[in-house]
Write a structure and sequence with these properties.
Shape: elongated
Oligomer: single chain
Radius of gyration: 20 Å
CATH architecture of the largest domain: 3-Layer(aba) Sandwich
Largest sheet: 7 strands, parallel
CATH topology of the largest domain: Alpha/beta knot
Number of strands: 13
Order of helices and strands: EEHEEEEEHEHEEHEEHEH
CATH superfamily of the largest domain: SPOUT methyltransferase, trefoil knot domain
Strand content: 15-25%
Distance between the termini: 28 Å
């Protein structure tokens, strides 16, 4: 399989340049050689065939070919706003949400959150999750990379940050989702381990979030938002 690499600057046909450090290390680990083919993407919605022209100890030189349009996105953007699960579960959530087509991920601190982040630690985690989204996009063939937003407290996000469009909040005991029909932007809110507190769920309803359920089984904090995202994808 041809190696796909994300680069953080706009690409142009005929451009010749050294891959940025992260992409270069990936190429070196895969032991690419001069003359080998790569696919590059810059997040703007196209794949760019490229050729390795030279390999150094610390750099990889490439030349870019003509772009090829790629359409592997959901027709409408889906935002997942999640009370961050602890340990490696958030990493897994970011990876799988990227594979399923999420456009934006909003990490939240909720009343029952086990993982509580703020300041520099929160920003380091956001950068880590953004890197996971990049790697997952490289692997699954997406030419756009989901945006991982900075960590916000749930109350502040409900007041100032929730995007427009249809709004859903996962709520135990609520009526289950009906047939998927994605006809506009969707924002789905899911709680942390233990779920949203009653006051948080009420605040979400007051902000225009429709309570929905996922059936009789209780899903983990990292599974529930992915189930909803898969539901949205079937309606695309």
């Amino acid at each position: 399989m041809t190696l796909r690499l994300f680069v953080e600057h706009p690409l142009a046909e005929g451009a010749a340049f050294a891959l940025p450090p992260g992409a270069a290390r990936h190429a070196q680990v895969r032991r690419v050689q001069p003359g080998d083919a790569l696919v590059l993407f810059d997040g703007a919605g196209a794949d760019w065939p490229a050729e390795v022209t030279a390999m150094g100890r610390h750099d990889v030189q490439v030349r870019v070919g003509a772009p090829q349009a790629v359409d592997r996105e959901l027709p409408w953007p889906v935002t997942l706003a999640v009370g961050m699960p602890a340990n490696e579960r958030m990493d897994w959530l970011v990876e799988k949400a990227t594979e399923l087509g999420v456009a934006r991920l909003q990490p939240l601190v909720c009343e029952r959150s086990v993982l509580r982040l703020a300041g520099e630690r929160a920003e380091r985690k956001r950068e880590h999750w953004q890197a996971i989204a990049v790697a997952a996009s490289e692997q699954c063939g997406r030419a756009r990379v989901p945006v991982v937003e900075p960590v916000w407290p749930l109350a502040r996000w409900l007041a100032d940050g929730a995007p427009a469009g249809r709004r859903l909040v996962l709520a135990p005991g609520a009526a289950p989702l009906g047939p998927p029909r994605l006809d506009g932007p969707l924002c789905a809110l899911s709680g942390p381990e233990g779920g949203l507190a009653p006051a948080e769920e009420e605040a979400a309803r007051a902000a225009g979030f429709e309570p929905v359920g996922l059936g009789a089984r209780i899903l983990r904090a990292e599974t529930a938002p992915l189930a909803l995202l898969a539901w949205a994808g079937f309606g695309a």
